[in-house]
């Protein structure tokens, strides 16, 4: 089996398990948990300022597209509020590779990449290894796919 097909099969299986009731946001184009917390509670700004994911706190939060984003500091929260489109993950915080294949998969906050000032997340490090083999091409394909699926429920994909 070819590596990409194997990953797609793995993603489809994992997606069925992961989304069997765990992840629903008030706005279906944002990946959030049952409490509407996005990015598994990690600080979106930290990817840019610290070069790594940092766990956020309920002490510092902001709401964006009906999802709650947590931050590690007031400064990061305020930076996000001032320009959420700059810091919010692409494709609503769903897996960038999954988006490319018109699916919404949950992410591992540690499988990330900032490319041209945008945050991209992947389901896990294995999927990320495939994603980074052609980042520009994958982004181009995901950018075409996202408008088609962003308002579609996971169960309908």
UniProtKB/TrEMBL annotation:
<keyword id="KW-0732">Signal</keyword>
<protein>
    <submittedName>
        <fullName>YHS domain-containing protein</fullName>
    </submittedName>
</protein>
<feature type="signal peptide">
    <location>
        <begin position="1"/>
        <end position="25"/>
    </location>
</feature>
């Amino acid at each position: 089996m070819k590596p990409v097909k194997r990953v797609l099969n793995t993603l489809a299986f994992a997606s069925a398990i992961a989304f069997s009731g765990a992840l629903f946001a008030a706005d279906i184009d944002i990946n959030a948990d049952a409490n509407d917390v996005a990015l598994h509670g990690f600080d979106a700004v930290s990817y840019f300022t610290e070069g790594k994911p940092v766990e956020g706190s309920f002490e510092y939060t902001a709401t964006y597209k009906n999802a709650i984003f947590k931050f590690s500091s007031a400064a990061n929260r305020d930076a996000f509020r001032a320009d959420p489109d700059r810091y919010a993950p692409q494709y609503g915080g769903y897996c960038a590779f999954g988006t490319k294949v018109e699916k919404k998969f949950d992410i591992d906050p540690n499988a990330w990449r900032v490319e041209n000032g945008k945050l991209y997340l992947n389901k896990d490090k294995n999927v990320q290894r495939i994603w980074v083999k052609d980042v520009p091409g994958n982004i181009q394909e995901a950018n075409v796919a996202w408008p088609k699926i962003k308002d579609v429920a996971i169960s309908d994909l």
